[in-house]
Amino acid sequence: VEKAMNKLNLRMPHQLFIGGMFVDAEGAKTYETINPTDGSVICQVSLAQVSDVDKAVAAAKDAFENGLWGRISARDRGRLLY
Questions:
Q1: Rounded to an integer, what distance in angstroms lies between the CA atom of residue 57 and that of residue 67?
Q2: Which residues contact 4 (CB under 8 A, 6 or more apart)?
Q3: What pTM was computed for the model?
Q4: Which residues pair with 31 in a beta bridge?
Q5: Aldehyde dehydrogenase domain location, by residue (predicted)?
Q6: Which SS3 state, helix, strand or coil, does residue 47 take?
Q7: Residues 8-64: pLDDT tens digits?
Q8: Which pLDDT score, from 0 to 100, does residue 5 have?
Q9: String of b and e for 3-21 (b: at least 16 CB within 10 Å)?
Q10: H helices within 3-69, ranges in order?
C-alpha cells in the first residue's frame, strides 16, 4: 500500500505482523481502514482470523520465554514501548 502524505510517499504493508514477519491472514480477507478526520479510506488491511490470533499469541509467548524480550527488565520493556 502506498500513500502520499506530507510530501512523502509512504509504503505500508497490509499484512499481519506475526513472529517478526509480515504474513497474509488466513482466508485472505481484508477490511478498510478509515481516516477518522474525514471518513476517507486509508488502505485495505488484513483481517485476522482466530487462527491468526492464535499464531500471534504463540509467537509472542515464544519471543518472551526464549528471546531477548523476556530477558529485558520490565522497566526497560516499558521504556521501549513508551
A1: 14
A2: 10
A3: 0.70
A4: 45
A5: 22-81
A6: coil
A7: 887 777 899 999 999 999 998 999 989 999 999 988 889 999 999 999 999 999 999
A8: 76
A9: eeeeeeeeeeeeebebeee
A10: 50-66
Q: Helix, strand, coil shares of the chain as percentages rounded to 5? A: 40, 30, 30
According to DSSP, the β-strands at 30-34 and 21-23 are unpaired
CB count within 10 Å of CB 60 equals 14
Cβ atoms of residues 50 and 77 within 8 Å: no
Higher pLDDT, 81 or 58: 58
Helix (H) or strand (E) holding 81: helix 74-81
Are 39 and 60 in contact by the 8 Å Cβ rule? The answer is no
- How far is the CA of 4 from the CAs of 23, 36, 70, in angstroms? 24, 17, 38
What is the CB neighbour count within 10 angstroms for residue 72? 14
Could you identify the residue written with the cell 521504556?
A: 79
Going from the C-alpha of 76 to that of each of 57, 60, 81, the distances in angstroms are 22, 17, 9
Contact 26, 68 (CB under 8 A): no
